[in-house]
Amino acid sequence: MKVLHGYRNLKSELKDPIIAIGIFDGIHLGHKRVVKKVLASRESGRDKVILTFDPHPQAVLAPEKTPPRIMSLEHRLYILEKMGLDAVVVIRFSEFLALMSPEDFIKKVILGIGARKVYVGSNFHFGRGKEGTVEMFKKLGKMHGIDVRIVQPVKNQGKVISSTWLRSLISKGKLERAAKLLRRPVSVLGTVVRGDNRGTDLGRPTANIDPHQEVIPPPGVYAVKVDISGKIRNGVLNIGFKPTFYGSRLKKRKEPYLEVHIMGYKGNLYGQSLEIFFIKKLRNERRYKKSEALMRQIDKDVKRAEKVLSGDKLLWKIRRYKYL
Fold first, then answer.
1. Which residues lie closer than 8 Å to 166 by C-beta, 6 or more apart?
2. Are 154 and 12 members of one domain?
3. 246, exposed or middle or buried, with CB in 10 Å at 0-12, 13-18, 19+?
4. Whether residue 142 sits in one domain with residue 205
5. Is residue 320 within a helix (H) or strand (E), and if so which, with residue range?
């Protein structure tokens, strides 16, 4: 999959593209419906393309109202590639772009990349002050020879699935509910960084994760699946503040740690990006007076996680989620 930046001089990079436009934060079922429309097109010889923006438009238009990211750009690109798209065009959202009139947006951006067929969600707005509605898009598109298709939202129990709803569920720890909006487990993409090596010292080595996104589940211990270069392994993840070692006021951390023990893994993971799938919360984080008590609890967590994570059906769900 090609990843292209900007919207100028891309006609030579794309073959008569069919595109979908959006942020796609979380890539929930509503987003997937839009992507599927592009992928389902049977017009051969045309590239299937996503046009997205980074940073989030709210970060430019109203920074104080910018929602925390469910997924980083890297995470979105990672998943979109697995869906089978030919390219993703990433446009840096700026004040210049925000001040474009709806017609200029169509002329400079849509026609600039050579798109003649476009899919958008029914709540899509574009152009200066969000003047552009889907009705206006269809009207202007017809004037400029662009076939604009509107995709209706997906509902779950009568409620429209949205990134806002998904964001709320994940941050509150309602992961099973969130998984239904995704039709896959909630996941975090993060880079393995150096930590304080306490896990290794205790004989239970862990990989310290620097998450790429801002929305993560609440503190606690979770049974997880970990994608390491395409191979899925079992693990136990702790999100928290290490109260056994950082329990005093002087040492207490402001930002939570994410560290994962990957069962049976002995390789060096520093600098690698791992995708971690939350399967089940095992317990809340708590403080132990002695490290030996913590070690015994970790062993119990691993045994419980092994039971939770067993079975081919769960592994099938993990692999399948990357596709539609």
1. 26, 28, 70, 178, 181, 182
2. yes
3. middle
4. no
5. helix 312-320
Read off the CATH number of the domain in which 149 is found.
Answer: 3.40.50.620
Here the tokens at position 301 are 């967590």
**For the CA atoms of the chain, what is the radius of gyration?**
22
Tokens of 188: 């975090």
Same domain (yes/no): 134, 251:
no
pLDDT 10s digits, 97-141 = 999 999 999 999 999 999 999 999 999 999 998 899 999 999 999
Closest CA to 89 of 163, 17, 162: 17
**How is the beta sheet containing 147-151 ordered, strand by strand?**
2-5, 87-92, 48-54, 18-21, 117-121, 147-151
Q: What is the CATH number of the domain that holds 214?
A: 2.40.30.30
Confirm whether 43 is domain-assigned.
Answer: yes
- Intra-chain end-to-end CA distance of the chain, in Å: 16
Question: Could you give the count of Cα atoms lying within 13 Å of 98 in the half-sphere of its Cβ?
Answer: 13
What is the count of structural domains for the chain? 2
pLDDT per residue as tens digits for the range 220-245: 999 999 999 989 999 999 998 654 44
Sequence-distant (6+) residues with CB within 8 A of 126 are: 21, 102, 105, 132, 137
* Residue range(s) defining the domain that contains residue 136: 2-160
Q: Across the chain, which distance is largest between two alpha carbons, in Å?
A: 73
